[in-house]
Design goal:
With about 260 residues, the chain is an alpha+beta fold. It has 8 helices and 6 strands, in the order αααααααβαβββββ. A hairpin with a 5-residue loop joins β2 and β3. The chain is elongated and about 60 Å long. α4 packs across α6 and α5 packs across α6. Strands 1-6-2-3-4-5 form a 6-stranded antiparallel β-sheet.
Amino acid sequence: DPPLFPGKFLKSGLFNNGIVKTLQKRLTAVGCDPAVADGNFGEVTKLAVSLFQARGADLKGRPLEIDGIVGPNTWGALFGPGSLGKTPPAFPPPGKATDLRQAVLQIVAEEIGSMEVPRGSNMGERVEEYQNSVGEWCVGQPWCMCFVYWSFKQAAAGTGKKLLVPKTGGVIDSWNRSRALKSPVRTVTSAEAQDDIGLVVPGMVFYLRTSGSKGHCGVVVANMNGLMETIEGNTNNGGSREGIGVFRRSKRRINQINLGFASYG
């Protein structure tokens, strides 16, 4: 059996690491020689990884990102399909949800297809319901954070759990306020998630900064070795933060989320 992806991104700065040694041996075998299999991820190993990425494709035949970092896509291309382990369980979970995150997953799934009316207006009956859950001032404004807040509000009411998502329509504001909250709220920074992708679980909220004061967020549905399935409001098939509705997406990767993730119970 091929070696399983270790659940962490392998990159420069790792020393005396057995997994890196396995990686280096495999790079040599595929003609991208890192010079010596010593377990140290230095510049030569990074260049060898980049060379492999430039030549190869992921398991779905898509070009690899040439960044010198070994995430699940590069690992799978190197070691084959069996190296990425099992596919996560089907979503959403069946039956009545008693857990907050499970309830959120069921709620956001039911909202897929809700659209702005007219498109591109940040308005519409359902969209305004999301916005009004935060406050009337949100109507007509970008609403991805309002969608997340509304979804957790519904989940909290249905399960009898406390609503802990900050009441705000601002993505950056919500992330900053969440970071200041105590247990059971838990935040995982971008760096922490890249070091251990297993920290990101279904029902968490991802927070992404898109410019100085603007951002985008959504609910994590599944984590497939660093490639996420998400449900997001105010987006489109391309992942825009100024989209037209609620969409299910499967192209965001953990190492692209530059703020982090939050669990609200």
